[in-house]
Amino acid sequence: MRTIQQLTSEEVKTIKIPLKKAFHLLRTKHNITARMNFSCCGNCGSYELGEIVKEKKLDGYVFYHHQDEDNFKEGGDVYLRYGKGVGAITAHGVGRLIVSVCKEVGLQTDWDGTDEKCILVKGTEYLEQWRKDEERRQKIGRIQQNIKLSRLRTERYEESIISEKDAIIALEKELEELKNETSR
Ligand SMILES: [Zn+2]
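Above: inputs. Below: predicted complex with zinc ion.
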């Protein structure tokens, strides 16, 4: 169970990175207009994008509105609203496309496949996974840094051992020379 709490701006940014990527893919690869934080409500947004879709002859649209954005910032999950365009793709087809593109960018969704139902993007799950990955990345970084430092120290020890040995050789040579002088 998760408790509803306000996300930090850092957390919002983290979830929005893959979300932006998904919306970008839908626009550029799938002929679907995709708008984040668009319009005041589901009805207005659907109407406005429906007009754009007709005008630009697109295959569909997807968006989430201002209230969705507020809810997203509180809970971490976001509902996507979508619809068909002027092409052969049905609303269901548009929904399936959105779900698959979300998966492609690492976002899990919850959708029962019906045309009227919004697609829930599980931002909180993404955040949890991201945190775990981040923790692992930091651990790896720390270990790599420790190995590097130990290697540097070892190199320095080796260098100082070599110079100590050279010093002994030089002193022994000097000693030998002095002994030879006195015996002459
Ligand atoms: Zn409205």
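Residues 40-41, 43-44 surround zinc ion (CB under 6 Å).
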